[in-house]
Amino acid sequence: MKGRPGLRDAAMAMLALIVVLAIPLLHRSPAFEDFIIRLSAMALFATSLNLLVGNTGMVSFGHGLFYGLGAYAFALTMQMTDLPLPAAAVVAVLVTAFGALGVGAICVRLSTDYFAFITLAVQMLFYSIIISWQSLTGGDQGLRGGIPRREIFGYELTSQLHLYQFCAVIAVFGLLTLRHITASPFGQTLRMIRDNENRASFLGIVLWRARLIAFTIAGAFAGLGGVLAALFVSGAYPELADWPNSGQAIFAVMLGGINSFLGPVLGAMILLALNDVVTRFTEYHGLVLGLVILAFALGLRRGVLDFLRLAWPGHLK
Amino acid sequence: MDLDALGACLSTSACVVTQATSGLIVGMLLFLVAAGVTLIFGVLKVVNFAHGTFYMLGGYVAYSTLGLTDSYALAVVCGALATALGGVVFERALISRVYGSNVLMQLLICYAVVLIFDDLVKIIWGPEFHAMGMPPAFQVPPLYIAGGVVPPFYAVLVGIAALIALALSLGLSMTRLGKTVRAAAVNAQMVSALGVNTKLLFAIVFAIGGGLAGLAGALAAPVRSLSPGMGFSILIESFIVTVIGGMGSIAGALVAALMIGMVRGFGTIAFPGFTDGLIYLMMIAVLLLRPQGLFGRRL
Fold first, then answer.
1. Could you read off the pLDDT of A1-60 as tens digits, one per residue?
2. How many CB atoms are closer than 10 A to CB A317?
3. Domain of B224: which CATH number?
4. Is residue B294 part of a domain?
């Protein structure tokens, strides 16, 4: 299917979706379904961050803000209104997109290092607001009381299987959309800005506008990830918007590979799987995770997928 | 928000002295940690995300030394020396391999180190909180300055930190090593071409930075409790300090650390529960109005 990369991507996404949806029909494993649900949230979160880091060269330390904002916006909309679940999810993503537009408008004009620090500061400010605005957010206890699981199209999301299917569908379509944006002329523009912003500017590209659009899109998709996370934990917790959570996304991006579209997904898989496997065997999972990260960082010096693509050029896209 | 309480506090000298002292302690300890971060960034352009780990190790080494020798002074010295050595090993074994590569790669390595050492501390010293206790020489009635309560240990802490700030700035401006360090901050390659062993120089910078963080941890141990993960919150605050003060500026680090200390001291009265938010607001304001920081040069 050379020359029709869009079709190829769509075909691959559908194949992946069919495989993921078929697995529970053959074998039910709560641990595996749990894993996929968390992975779908994390994959959207990390891949949206990579739209900034890998494609545009904007290192954001505060991406967790939008993950948390999506989760809180969704959980609060579900608790306070009677909107059906998909509508609440759309509201949450819109809220996050506007949030990202506002934060981006302040941040994107700063150069690389300062951009990283100001995104971190804005995120931590948001975190402090969540903690201190107890009447709305429940403070450091998190937003409890659960999310009313209204039926959608005869689906009951309290069942783990249905939640699994819902998350898988949302994640695959979300990733496909992000892939489409990355491959579009706009995506090319972003990579040109990353490689040589002066040249891009001379060619008539308004740098701040392109960066702001990228920031807004990335925020919206992180918010979508946050919606899935809120569904999984049935609430929203300040940790979703905390610094270590942004760190998780950065590590997923770095472990998987910043120059490959699916790198962050692979990185999220590695991080989650390590976490699950190692915590089963030892309480010192930080020690093991740290050693593994060191081995990857010093051994490969780039993300796994980037490394593989360099090792076998032409075979992997 | 409770501005009346702040006004009431500011009108009595006792309250002002008490809050200012606690702010001063926070600020000075923070300065010791942030000075290392800013020095390492200034010279090596490495953002050391593992700096809080040195602070934690300094505290724990001091705790153990105190248990073995019963000497508080020796405990502080050992804490600082151990982390200075740790700084050298960290630089040589890990960070020197990723000089010049993506800042995120450095972040990844530092994060791994933080994870590993948090767990090592759990294995060696246990996951529970430890309290080091006030050295016996300072178990005396507090001083009263203008009606405010000032524990004598606090006064000594601030004194030591101030001495170190002075020594650091004099050392950087007057000594040969200090001049070399400042030259390397401007152009490390040229300094190397002029015959200075920059590998050694970088290791020394990491030793000083690590040692200062360890010293802060050891000094803080009697005032704060020790726990694995204690390096985390001080790390983020020392970043705020370096950003507000200007990356690479020691004087900026001192001013910013004291500012944050005072916001912590007095902010808790006016905005209980939102002092962190105030500090982040300060950081955002500085980044927007003067991105290079109060005392920084543009990168």
1. 456 778 888 888 899 998 888 888 888 888 888 899 999 999 999 999 999 999 998 999
2. 11
3. 1.10.3470
4. no
CA A120, CA A117: separation in Å to the nearest integer? 5
Q: Smallest Cα–Cα separation from A177: which of A53, A3, A47? A: A47
Between the alpha carbon of residue A302 and those of residues A151, A249, B108, the distances in Å are: 44, 16, 11
Q: Which residue is it, tokens 């949206």?
A: A48
Task: Check A293 against B287: CB less than 8 A apart.
Answer: no
Domains contained in chain B, number: 1
Q: Which residue range is the domain that position B144 belongs to? A: 3-289
Q: Tell me whether residues A118 and B247 touch, CB distance under 8 A.
A: no
Kindly state whether residue B82 falls inside one of the protein's structural domains: yes
Q: CA B173 to CA B161: how far, in whole Å? A: 18
Site of tokens 């989650």: A272
What is the CB neighbour count within 10 angstroms for residue A243? 18
**A263 min Cα distance to partner chain B (Å):** 15
Among A59, A127, A128, A285, the residue to mutate for chain B (most B Cβ within 10 A): A128
Q: Do B109 and A110 touch (CB under 8 A)?
A: no
Chain B residues with CB under 8 Å of A250 CB are: 104, 107-108
Interchain proximity B274–A132, CB inside 8 Å: yes
Rounded to the nearest angstrom, the gap between the alpha carbon of residue A22 and the centroid of all alpha carbons in its chain is 24
Q: pTM for the full model? A: 0.88
Q: Taking CB atoms and an 8 Å limit, are B115 and A289 in contact across chains?
A: yes
SS3 string, chain A, reads: CCCCHHHHHHHHHHHHHHHHHHHHHHCCCHHHHHHHHHHHHHHHHHHHHHHHHHHHCCCCCCCHHHHHHHHHHHHHHHHHCCCCHHHHHHHHHHHHHHHHHHHHHHHCCCCHHHHHHHHHHHHHHHHHHHHHCHHHHCHHHCECCCCCCCCECCECCCCHHHHHHHHHHHHHHHHHHHHHHHHCHHHHHHHHHHHCHHHHHHCCCCHHHHHHHHHHHHHHHHHHHHHHHHHHHCCECHHHHCHHHHHHHHHHHHHHCCCCCCHHHHHHHHHHHHHHHHHHHCCCHHHHHHHHHHHHHHHCCCCHHHHHHHHCCCCCC
Q: Residues for chain B: how many in total?
A: 299
ipTM score of the complex? Answer: 0.84
pLDDT tens digits for range B201-238: 999 999 999 999 999 999 988 888 888 878 888 888 89
